[in-house]
Amino acid sequence: MSLIAQIINRLYHRPYLLMTNTVTGVLSISIGDVLQQNLENHWTNNNKNFDNVIGDEQNSTKRFQWDQKRTRNMMFAGVYFSLFGHWWYSFLDRKFPPNQKRSVKKKLLAESAMGPFLVSSVFILFGRINGNGFEKMLSNIKSNFTLICLVEWFVFVPVQYINFRFVPSSFRYLYVATFSIGYDAFLSYVLHRNDRLRQRKRLKNESIFD
Questions:
Q1: What is the tens place of the pLDDT at every residue in 29-85?
Q2: Does residue 142 form part of some domain?
Q3: Domain range holding 67?
Q4: How many CB atoms lie under 10 A from the CB of residue 75?
Q5: 40: exposed, middle or buried (C-beta count within 10 Å: 0-12, 13-18, 19+)?
Q6: DSSP 128
Q7: HSE-up of 69 (CA within 13 Å, CB side)?
C-alpha cells in the first residue's frame, strides 16, 4: 500500500474520521459561500436598477470584496453540519444494515424527514450568532421553509440513494460534502437573502432623501 493510500485509509477510519469529516464539511461550505458571494457580486454588476439606486452609473462595475465575516459564520454552520452528519450516518448504519435495498429506503425516509429540520436549525444558529430575536428567526424559517424542503427532497434524495446504496460508510460524508458545494452556495444565498433585501431598501430610501 502506497503512503498516500495509507494516509487516506487512516484519515477515513477511527479515531480520525470525525476530525476528517469536520474539516471536509467546513471546506465545502466555505467554498460554497465564496462562490455565492462571487455570484452576488456578478448579479449586482448586471443589475442596472441597483446601480441607479446607489448612484454609481459611471462606474457600475464593482470589484469583488470577500465578506470574511459571512464566510466565518458559514464555517460555524459547516462544523454543525459535520458533527451532526457524522453522528447521523453512524446512527443510520447501526439502525439499518448497510447496502440492503430495504434499508436504503428506510434511510431515505429518515433523511427526508430530518433534512428540513436540520437546515431550519441552522437559521436558529445564525440568528444566535447575529443576535436576532426569536421572532425574526422564526420569520426567516417560515419564509424559506418550503424552498428548503423542495431542494432537500428533489436534489438530495437521489444523491443520498447513491450514497446509502454504493458508498462505503467511511466515505459517505466526503461524498455528500463534495456534492453539497452547490447546495452550500444555495444555502448561503438563502441565509443572507433577507439581509440583501434590507440593504437594497435602505439604499433606496437614502437615495430618495438625498
A1: 999 999 999 998 887 777 655 445 444 444 456 777 889 999 999 999 899 989 998
A2: yes
A3: 21-207
A4: 16
A5: middle
A6: H
A7: 4
